[in-house]
Write a structure and sequence with these properties.
It contains 6 helices and 8 strands; from the N terminus they run E-H-E-E-H-H-H-E-H-E-E-E-H-E. By secondary structure, the chain is an alpha/beta fold.
C-alpha cells in the first residue's frame, strides 16, 4: 500500500503533506506526491517532492538541458501547440486584453528594456509558509511573489520598465493595468505567451501562471 499526498488538491494545504509524510516515514509506509500534470488531463506522481523538489526537476537542475535534449524538444513542441490553443486548462483563455497589450507596447517605445516578473500561486507552491527548510530549490529570500517584484524594481536601472503579472489565484477578479510608479506596473488578463513575446527578460520563483 502507498499513501498519496494530494499536492494539487484544493482541499489540502502544504502543511498537511509534510505531516502526512512524517507519519508515513514513522510507520514505514511509502509516500508519494500527486500533482496535476503539465498537460491538461494528465497526472504526475513523484516520491521525492513536488514542483522544483521533484526527482525530475532536481535531476534536470544537476545535469542540465544538454543531457536532456529530448525534454527540450518536447517543450518546444508544447509551446507551438499552446500558441495554437491546443492545450488549455479549464478556465484558461487565449483572450487578449488590448488595453494591456497596448500599454506594454507603449513602454517598449519609452524604455530600453522590458522585464517581466511572473507571479506564482504563493500559498500552493512551497513559497509560503517559509518554515520548510528542506525547500532547497524554492526561494528562501522572498516571502511572496510581491516581494520578488518589489526587489526587482529596487535593483533595476532607470532604463528598464518592470511588468508584474501576478498569479490569478493570488489577485482574483483584477483586470487591466495598475501602474505602481513611472517604471513599474501590474498587468492582468493577458495570457503569458503574449506577454513573453513583448518582453526582453522574465523572472519567476516557481510554478507560474
Amino acid at each position: 500500500e502507498i499513501s498519496l499526498g494530494l499536492v494539487g488538491s484544493e482541499m489540502c494545504i502544504r502543511d498537511s503533506h509534510l505531516i502526512a509524510r512524517r507519519i508515513c516515514e514513522k510507520l514505514f509506509i511509502p509516500f508519494a506526491y500527486w500533482h496535476p500534470g503539465f498537460l491538461p488531463g494528465t497526472m504526475a506522481f513523484d516520491y521525492t517532492g513536488m514542483l522544483a523538489e521533484s526527482e525530475f526537476h532536481q535531476d534536470l537542475a544537476s545535469k542540465g538541458l544538454e543531457e536532456r535534449s529530448e525534454w527540450l524538444e518536447l517543450g518546444w513542441e508544447y509551446v507551438e501547440q499552446a500558441k495554437a490553443g491546443v492545450y488549455l486548462r479549464p478556465g484558461k483563455s487565449n483572450r487578449i486584453n488590448d488595453e494591456v497589450l497596448q500599454f506594454i507596447r507603449k513602454q517598449k517605445q519609452q524604455f530600453k528594456k522590458i522585464l517581466l516578473v511572473i507571479g506564482s500561486n504563493d500559498y500552493r507552491t512551497g513559497v509560503l509558509p517559509q518554515d520548510y527548510v528542506n525547500s532547497d530549490l524554492h526561494s528562501r529570500y522572498y516571502k511572496s511573489s510581491d516581494s520578488l517584484f518589489e526587489g526587482v524594481v529596487s535593483v533595476t536601472e532607470d532604463d528598464t520598465f518592470v511588468v508584474y503579472k501576478p498569479h490569478p489565484n493570488v489577485y482574483p477578479g483584477r483586470s487591466g493595468v495598475e501602474a505602481i510608479s513611472g517604471r513599474a506596473a501590474l498587468v492582468f488578463d493577458l495570457p503569458l505567451r503574449h506577454l513573453l513575446e513583448q518582453v526582453d527578460t522574465s523572472i519567476t520563483i516557481c510554478s507560474s501562471g
